[in-house]
């Protein structure tokens, strides 16, 4: 019986792996270009990382409450090379629950990281003019609700005879851990420029 269970697990694992698609950009990654784009300059990008809880349709409402990135959240900055442009385009086009788009390990190394403070703020300094892509994962506690029957209301006629019951429902709220990816393209046009953004 144990062997049968192990075999079934292997079969389901194989089927699951077939259902998961992984893509990589096919463009050439020019590490010399990426290195030069991340060279030292006199510009700064600073901002605040936050997110909003998605509704039942997977949309973040405009007027929803903000959840600021916890202290120590990593914000990544990538130079927008032709390789990165293909990666981003593929991710927008193909990525879903069954498909993941990755950049190569070498391309992923060419990035700069910053950590958020107690208020979700971050800063990248000594940047050159150019186009950059910023991304972070904001973890937060989301809230949801459910209804549960907690009693009934009985109805009687004028003679005191029971007619029917109506259920009474109460709404209960609970919290759960959630995370959203937040990102933005930022372009620095002149050396010494300060860009303030909301991520």
Automatic annotation (TrEMBL):
Query: What's the name of the protein?
Result: Carboxypeptidase regulatory-like domain-containing protein
Keyword terms of this UniProt record: Signal
Organism (species): Chryseobacterium kwangjuense
Report the leader peptide range.
1-19
């Amino acid at each position: 019986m144990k062997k049968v269970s192990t075999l079934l697990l292997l079969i389901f694992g194989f089927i699951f792996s077939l259902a998961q698609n992984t893509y990589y950009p096919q463009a050439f990654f020019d590490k010399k270009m990426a290195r030069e784009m991340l060279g030292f300059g006199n510009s700064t990008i600073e901002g605040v990382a936050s997110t909003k809880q998605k509704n039942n349709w997977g949309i973040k409402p405009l007027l929803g409450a903000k959840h600021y990135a916890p202290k120590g959240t990593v914000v990544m900055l990538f130079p927008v090379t032709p390789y990165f442009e293909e990666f981003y385009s593929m991710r927008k086009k193909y990525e879903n629950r069954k498909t993941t788009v990755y950049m190569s390990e070498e391309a992923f190394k060419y990035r700069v990281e910053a950590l958020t403070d107690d208020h979700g703020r971050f800063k990248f300094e000594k940047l050159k003019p150019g186009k950059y892509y910023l991304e972070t994962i904001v973890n937060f506690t989301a809230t949801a609700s459910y209804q549960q029957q907690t009693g009934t209301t009985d109805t009687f006629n004028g003679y005191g005879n029971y007619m029917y019951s109506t259920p009474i429902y109460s709404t209960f709220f609970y919290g759960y851990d959630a995370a959203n990816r937040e990102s933005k393209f930022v372009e620095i046009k002149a050396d010494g420029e300060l860009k303030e953004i909301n991520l």
